[in-house]
Write a structure and sequence with these properties.
Blueprint (H helix, E strand, L loop, with lengths): L3 H5 L1 E5 L3 H12 L3 E6 L7 H4 L3 E2 L12 H10 L5 E3 L4 H13 L3 H15 L2 H11 L6 E2 L3 E5 L4 H13 L4 E5 H7 L9 E5 L3 E3 L2 H14 L3 E11 L5 E6 L5 E4 L3 E4 L6 H6 L7 E10 L9 E3 L4 E6 L2 E10 L10 H12 L12 E9 L6 E4 L5 E5 L5 H16 L17
Parallel strand pairs: 1-2, 1-13, 2-10, 4-17, 6-15, 13-20
Antiparallel strand pairs: 3-9, 5-9, 6-8, 7-8, 10-11, 11-12, 14-17, 14-18, 15-16, 16-17, 19-20
């Protein structure tokens, strides 16, 4: 129920990515006057460049002990899935130290359960929100494939059981059964896991723009500006700079929700928190040609994903640690083309210059969990650190954080995602 107080309360949502947009729509539906502020505008970052996969099957934290043995080989492989820029190595060490600690069995189990808590109804919440914004056609629910080329069958079965034992809807397929679903797959693929309940979007940017349009139609405002400072000493006070004319302004909303992604650390530090947030620089290659593919296909060995979209085919999946300011690395296009051709032989790689290479920033924490909800400042709330699952979790975390802001009963226990856990 919307109260009279809510009808007059003003909330600023900082960040116009998928997390900020879904949060703004949820708060707006509760009667708040909502303004979104973003330096570059709607979906200018990772929200437009992600793989477009609602990856609810990905329930395991990235901190896995086997990585300790695999990481050196990955780093030395020029076609490998992970890079650490040499000049960033020392700066990344504290993050990786925490990452290793989260490999401990008790922590890994705790983090797995917390991820499952978010994944359970994530696609349902996204479908509901997209339906209300008349853009449900942008969401395709045909599942996804994880394909294996050289992995021995016993190890494939082990992977299948890992997911099945955790309640993930998954089928074990032979290579031929996988090609019945996706005839364009290479004959080198020997086995596959078919995650039957996952989904993808035809265009993540269009989805964000549809949410933004609905938000504006319902009376919301989107301001293109950069938040410079937050003051909570007496009452909430925000200082920001307009992008168009560089004019400085002050404003005093009743509440603020920070959905600032990879740029969140400077604000949380200002608020008195030492959040171990770092940036995974993600890359994709967008090819303009469409291929006969019905669902996302991820390679187990190659660690990358191919997603069919309405304006072409997206190849994504590289992780690079290098901070927010280093220029884009070279050689990513070649990596995606080599791996893409191996999985989908008909993929047109003869004219790679027709493709568009993109880099964006993922906000990642060592425990693979986001930071959600209340802070020690009653007027300040947070929702960031969604790492590889920002698109997947956005609608659900928007609902959960809105429940906290409005003082309602929250659907799940928010303690695992609290900013106070660090």
């Amino acid at each position: 129920m919307v109260t009279n107080d809510q009808l007059h309360e003003q909330i600023w949502v900082v960040g116009a990515g998928i997390v900020g947009l879904t949060s703004a729509l949820q708060l707006q539906s509760q009667g708040y006057q909502v303004t979104i502020v973003d330096k570059k505008g709607v979906a200018a970052g990772a929200s437009q460049g992600n793989a477009g996969h609602f990856a609810t099957a990905e329930i395991f934290p990235h901190a896995e002990a086997s990585l300790l043995f695999e990481l050196p080989k990955m780093l030395l492989d020029p076609l490998g899935p992970i890079r650490i820029l040499p000049r960033y190595f020392l700066k990344a060490l504290p993050w990786f130290s925490r990452f290793v600690i989260n490999m401990l069995p008790n922590r890994r189990l705790k983090n797995t359960n917390a991820i499952k808590g978010l994944n359970y109804s994530a696609i349902h919440e996204m479908r509901e929100l997209a339906q209300s914004c008349n853009c449900a056609n942008l969401i395709v629910t045909k599942g996804s494939l994880l394909v294996f080329e050289q992995t021995p069958l016993p190890k494939v079965i082990q992977q299948w059981r890992r997911y099945a034992d955790e309640g993930v809807p998954v089928r074990l397929l032979t290579g031929n059964e996988a090609r019945e679903l996706e005839p364009s797959l290479s004959f080198n693929i020997q086995h596959a896991l078919f995650f039957t309940e996952t989904a993808h979007t035809k265009n993540p940017k269009f989805l964000c723009e549809a949410f933004a349009a609905t938000f504006i139609e319902r009376g919301g405002k989107i301001l293109q500006a950069e938040l410079d400072d937050i003051d909570t000493i007496d009452k909430l006070s925000l200082k920001y700079t307009s992008t168009d004319n560089q004019a400085e302004h002050m404003v005093n909303p009743d509440k603020i929700l920070l959905t600032t992604g990879a740029w969140s650390k400077k604000f949380t530090t200002k608020l008195g928190y030492n959040v171990p947030l770092d940036t995974e620089r993600g890359y994709h290659l967008m090819l303009p040609n469409k291929i006969p593919l019905n669902r996302p296909v991820t390679s187990f060995e190659r660690k990358f994903i191919i997603t069919p979209m309405n304006d072409g085919t997206r190849l994504a999946g590289m992780v690079e640690f290098g901070g927010l300011h280093a220029p884009k690395s070279k050689g990513c296009t070649e990596r995606f083309l080599v791996h893409g051709k191996a999985i989908i032989p008909m993929l047109n790689v003869d004219e790679p210059h027709n493709g568009i290479e993109w880099m964006g920033f993922r906000p990642s924490l060592p425990d693979s969990l986001p930071v959600l909800g209340k802070t020690k400042h009653s007027s300040v709330f947070v929702s960031f650190g969604h790492q590889h699952l920002g698109l997947t979790w956005s609608a659900l975390t928007a609902k959960l954080v809105a429940q906290q802001i409005t003082g309602r009963t929250v659907d799940i226990d928010m303690k695992p995602y609290s900013i106070e856990r660090f």
